Structures are given as structure tokens and as C-alpha cells.
Amino acid sequence: MSAQNINIKLKIWRQQSDKDKGNFEHYSLNEVSTASSFLEMLDQLNEQLINEGKEPIAFDHDCREGICGMCSLYINGRPHGPDTGITTCQLHMRSFKDGDTIVIEPWRSTAFPVIKDLIVDRTAFDRIQHAGGFVSVNTSGNTIDANAIPIPKDDADDSFAAAACIGCGACVATCKNGSAMLFVGAKVSQFALLPQGKTEAKRRVLNMVKQMDEEGFGNCTNTGACEVECPKGISLENIARMNREYLCAGASEK
């Protein structure tokens, strides 16, 4: 389908900081190519605002290749927009029609305070990973070939699938409880399935879940919205695996 230009209306959340109340502001943007990405459309809007002497809209981005997850936006009531299995930077304007009104918001979560406009502070995820999302193996001078450790293919596949999580926070944004259990479950599963991760498995899951709770994320009630909206298709099975790991680790501590 050939590209065409459309005119759209935008309803965008503006907020100076986490201390500011914030509000929606309305904009009109004309001659938007349907071949452009969603972030390119925001670039076009910011150029228009700058030319009008107005403050541009702050939004986060980096790779623009669906790898880093920094571009996370809530678009028309869905994390990353109307398409499935993609991040915001992979969303294109061909998903919208001429005359559409597009509502754009930041992630809504107590644990993700707004920095400015559409940018939120997701360092809560970093602190959870620091609490145990790593393998403490001394490989200095002792590095061995990965194939030297036999790992069942199903376990390897499941570990790689869990490791595909990019930590964008869509699971938190779409969950009615603001739960981060899909993210934490993926990070726990990534190592729990491999022999290299067994050494500190009990300490890992206890520390990560403890940190998750301290950050203020809600609990999981298995509605499955997180899996549906995850751009990398992380499975709910990872939450079940994390729960098993947590129960086993807790039992051994008694």
C-alpha cells in the first residue's frame, strides 16, 4: 500500500515533574505520512511546536529498533499502541486514519513516577535486577565453551524466551494491579532454567521478589493482560515458575 498523508488530532499528557498535577493538551498535526513511524510523527509535532515558540513534548527513545523498550507510551488505551508484538517505535502511522484523534499518555504506575510529560522513571526495574538478576560466576581466566555444559533444548529455549524481555514496563502499565510479576518472572526464569543460575537461585528469587514489593508494584491476579500486551510475548508460565522458585526457596529458609 502506497504512503499517503493524513491529518490527525493529538491529545497528549503534559506534566513538568512528578510533583506537578499534569493535564492533557490538544494539538493538530497535518500532512503526516503514513509511512512514518509513531516517533517520527512526534518529532514532526515537536518541530511544529518549536517553530511556534512553544515547548516541545518530552518523550523517551533510544534504539528505535524495538530492542531497548525506552519508547514506551500508552496510546489510545493500550501500551505501545493498537498493534501487537511491537514496541512504540515499531508502530507506524498507517495504523491510523485521516481525522483520527490519538490519545498519548505515559505509563501509569506508582512505581514509575513521571519525570516529564511522557517520560517515566523506570529505575525500579533496575533495582529489582540489581537485587538478584545476575549470575555470580567467576569466569576470569576460566572461560569455557558454552557447548561444554549440556543443557536440555527445552530448558535452553525457555531460558532464551524469558531473556527476550526488554524491561519496557508494558506489563505494569496494562495490569489493573500495576504488577511487575511478568518482568520479575522472566528475569528469574532466565537463570533458573540454566545450570549456571542454580548456585544462587534461592537467594535470587527471594531478593528480587522482596525488592519488587518494596518498589510498590501490585500483585498478580492472573488476568493475562500483561502477556497480551508484552511486545516480546513473554509467557505467563514465567510467573508460575517464579512462584514455584519462591515457594521452594522460602521453604528451605525455614
Short structural description:
The chain has two domains: 5-116, Beta-grasp domain (Ubiquitin-like (UB roll), Roll); 123-253, Alpha-helical ferredoxin (Fumarate Reductase Iron-sulfur Protein, Chain B, domain 2).
Describe this structure as you would to a colleague:
The protein is an alpha+beta fold and 254 residues long. The protein folds into two domains: 5-116, Roll (Ubiquitin-like (UB roll)), CATH 3.10.20; 123-253, Fumarate Reductase Iron-sulfur Protein, Chain B, domain 2, CATH 1.10.1060. It has helices at 38-51, 123-130, 153-163, 170-174, 181-192, 201-214, 225-229, 237-253, and strands spanning 5-14, 23-33, 74-75, 78-79, 101-105, 114-116, 119-120. Strands 2-1-5-3-4 form a five-stranded mixed β-sheet. The protein has a two-stranded antiparallel sheet with strand order 6-7. Helix 3 (153-163) packs antiparallel against helix 5, helix 5 runs antiparallel to helix 6 (201-214) and helix 5 (181-192) crosses helix 8 (237-253). The protein is elongated, with a radius of gyration of 21 Å. The mean pLDDT is 94.
Topology at a glance:
Elements: E1 5-14, E2 23-33, H1 38-51, E3 74-75, E4 78-79, E5 101-105, E6 114-116, E7 119-120, H2 123-130, H3 153-163, H4 170-174, H5 181-192, H6 201-214, H7 225-229, H8 237-253
Parallel strand pairs: 1-5
Antiparallel strand pairs: 1-2, 3-4, 3-5, 6-7
